[in-house]
Structures are given as structure tokens and as C-alpha cells.
Amino acid sequence: MVTWPDLDDVAQNVMIIASEEGVIWEACASWVPEPGHRGTAEIERTRSSVAQLVQLGLVRMYRLSAGNPDLTDVEVVSVMNDQRRWVYDQGGSHDVALYLTDLGETVYRGAAAEKPTS
Length: 118
Fold this sequence. Notes:
This protein is mainly α. It has 5 helices and 2 strands, in the order αααβαβα.
């Protein structure tokens, strides 16, 4: 089981944004606060962290629309591949939010069990 200390600083910042159900551009802004310093490398690192957290089952995405539906796996891939969604005020940066899954809540709250030692 993954624990909070197992996550790097970017992944931890993404988890914090997901705990607040923030929109996806905020994930990058959480660790690179100056817009002028958010380049391709920073956006890629953020997207990579989000992808890892989604794969681990800690974070999911939903669309900010009637009923706030979860994104399908196909939609998640589309969002992950669209760099414009990760930059403030460019197409689609305000219509998808992150949230913690039940497992993500457990890790975020620090209630995860210790990793077993071999």
C-alpha cells in the first residue's frame, strides 16, 4: 500500500488539490505558483504525477457539469494528452476537476497501514 511519504512533492501537491476538488490546471499551479515559470517540463511532471495517482487508484477526475459525472477511462486519457487543459485559461482548463478516491482519502489522511517488511 502506498503511504503519504512514498509520494514525491509534486504528487503530494496533486493530492492536496484533489482533496479540495480543484480543477486540473491548479495541480501544476500548486507547486509552480508563478505562471511565467510553468513551462512544458513542469506541466509534464504534473501530468505524470496525476497519471501515476490515477493508476494507483488514489485520484480520479470528473466533469464540472450537471451531475458532475466521472470521466471514463477514455476521457481521462484524452484529458491527460491535451496540454491546453493543464494551463490556466486555455480551452477546457476549467471543466475537469480532480478528487480523491476512498483509497486516496485514506492515504491523504495518513491512515494507511505501514508497508510490510520482507
